[in-house]
């Protein structure tokens, strides 16, 4: 009997160890494979991550729990002298941590998605948002999200985008600085570069530039346009707009990007928020 139990233990723990290793590698492959173009985001994110990913997480969690129960039962049944080594316990705990941690993170993302509107176009000027050039629109591709700001609504509430953004992100406002437009433009451009954005179109005479920010995981590309204008009373107004190329909800990424941009810009100019 002890031989059969030992064989069963080895099989279950071997499967558990494999799941503890394969599961995080699976999610890493989904993200990095999409980023480096091995497959598109609909496969890497929607299929690998959201489709098959939860099954792997549940499998890892279940295998970890079963292994833990089996190890405890084995020790009770056959005594400390026949107790398995530390490897089985480590595999069980790791599998439980991977499964529970992944499912917990997925639950937090779902909760976040439910708390913020499913929008992906954020602008500091919702009445006259900065516009993208034809060149950048071409780079976005025919399947990308529209950049026609005026036509957009929150698909959940069907309210106009400016109204929804003002409610969800009240801190996203025009950036008013006390320096002249030329200096404000250069500071904004340098800030964008410091943040790792890839600069596209830029025109100091027009007071605007465009950039693309690419995420590490999945390689999602969000496009940004920045506009600098002079104020009659002195100083400058800087407006920024950030738009995701794909997806309905950005989970707050575009608003966070503009907030980081403003924070770094003000710091470079020695101005507080």
Q: Your description of this structure?
A:
By secondary structure, the protein is of the alpha+beta class. It has two domains: 2-115; 121-269, TATA-Binding Protein. Helices cover 54% and strands 14% of the residues. The protein has seven helices and six strands. Strands 1, 2, 3, 4, 5 and 6 form a six-stranded antiparallel β-sheet that branches. Helix 2 runs antiparallel to helix 3. It is elongated, with a radius of gyration of 25 Å. 30% of the residues are buried.
Count of helical segments?
Answer: 7
Structural category is alpha+beta
Unreliably modeled segments: none
Considering DSSP H and I runs of 4 or more, what fraction of the residues is helical? Answer: 40-55%
The CATH superfamily of the largest domain turns out to be Kinase associated domain 1, KA1
CATH class of the largest domain: Alpha Beta
As a whole number of angstroms, the C-alpha radius of gyration is 25 Å
- What order do the helices and strands follow? HHHEHHEHEEEEH
The general outline is elongated
Structurally, the number of domains stands at 2
Named CATH architecture of the largest domain: 2-Layer Sandwich
Strand content range: 5-15%
CATH topology of the largest domain: TATA-Binding Protein
